[in-house]
């Protein structure tokens, strides 16, 4: 949990740097992946976004006709920014420590789970499992690579990263009760990513 507390403190204290250094539009492989995810669900489906940051992906979903999007993040600076950008119902949620409510057709988390240790990641997968219907989807991205590290890149303060290879990621997701529908590798600006779409395969 200490890695998570330190990483969240970095986001809270340097969120302006994160926003300034992040693309304000959904494009490229990220856009194509989100489009494929959305094509699997009804436009009336209830969507929960974990780690919505400044609302870029949620706004894209809404513009695509998916109106029932709940945005959350784990630190106040993001919640304030989300509300300033029109997400008046933005909720503070630390998926590691807080309880979730409701059932969703899609739980979406882009570049969030990469900040969790392997054990934390498994805990979150099992927690989210209980909030997806039989046909509900879990969609997320992590960085591809080996091991873990602290990095001050982009925000000039430390953030924890755990990297994944496709086979170990697939095995972990399946161990936690999911069936992989899609896992794709991509590269943008020199960074390799794994994008995953999964569905509950059994009761936990």
Biggest sheet, strands in spatial order?
3-2-1-4-5-9-8
CATH H-tier superfamily: Vaccinia Virus protein VP39
Q: Work out the helicity level.
A: 25-40%
Average pLDDT, all residues? 95
Tell me the major beta sheet. Answer: 7 strands, mixed
Report the principal-axis shape. Answer: globular
- For the record, give the distance between the C-alpha atoms at the N and C termini, rounded to a whole number: 24 Å
Total of domains: 1
CATH architecture: 3-Layer(aba) Sandwich
Question: What percent of residues are in strands?
Answer: 25-35%
Total count of strands: 9
Task: Indicate the CATH topology.
Answer: Rossmann fold
What is the N-to-C succession of helices and strands?
A: HHEHEHEEHEEEHEE
CATH C-level label = Alpha Beta
**Unreliably modeled segments:** none
Rounded to an integer in angstroms, the radius of gyration calculated over CA atoms is: 16 Å
Count of helical stretches: 6
What structural category do the secondary elements indicate?
A: alpha/beta
Task: Walk me through what this model shows.
This protein is an alpha/beta fold. It has one domain (2-200): Rossmann fold (3-Layer(aba) Sandwich), CATH 3.40.50. The chain has 6 helices and 9 strands. It has helices at 2-20, 28-39, 56-63, 76-84, 118-129, 166-175; strands at residues 47-49, 69-73, 91-92, 104-110, 132-143, 148-151, 159-162, 178-188, 191-200. The strands form 2 sheets. A 7-stranded mixed sheet has the order 3-2-1-4-5-9-8, sandwiched between helices. The chain has a two-stranded antiparallel ribbon with strand order 6-7. The protein is globular, with a radius of gyration of 16 Å. The model has no long low-confidence stretch (mean pLDDT 95).
């Amino acid at each position: 949990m200490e890695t998570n507390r330190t990483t969240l403190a970095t986001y809270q204290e340097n969120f302006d740097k994160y926003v300034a250094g992040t693309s304000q539009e959904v494009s490229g492989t990220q856009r194509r992946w989100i489009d494929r995810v959305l094509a699997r669900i009804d436009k009336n489906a209830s969507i929960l976004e974990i780690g919505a940051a400044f609302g870029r992906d949620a706004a894209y979903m809404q513009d695509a006709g998916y109106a029932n999007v709940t945005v959350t993040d784990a630190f106040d600076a993001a919640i304030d920014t989300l509300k300033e950008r029109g997400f008046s119902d933005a909720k503070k949620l630390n998926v590691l420590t807080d309880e979730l409510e409701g059932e969703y057709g899609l739980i979406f988390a882009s570049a969030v789970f990469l900040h969790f240790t392997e054990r934390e990641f498994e805990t979150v997968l099992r927690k989210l499992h209980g909030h997806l219907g039989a046909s509900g989807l879990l969609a997320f991205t992590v960085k591809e690579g080996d091991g873990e590290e602290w990095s001050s890149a982009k925000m000039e303060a430390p953030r924890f990263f755990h990297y994944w290879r496709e086979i170990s990621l697939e095995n972990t997701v399946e161990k936690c009760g999911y069936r992989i529908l899609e896992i794709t590798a991509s590269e943008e600006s020199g960074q390799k990513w794994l994008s995953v779409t999964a569905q509950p395969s059994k009761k936990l």
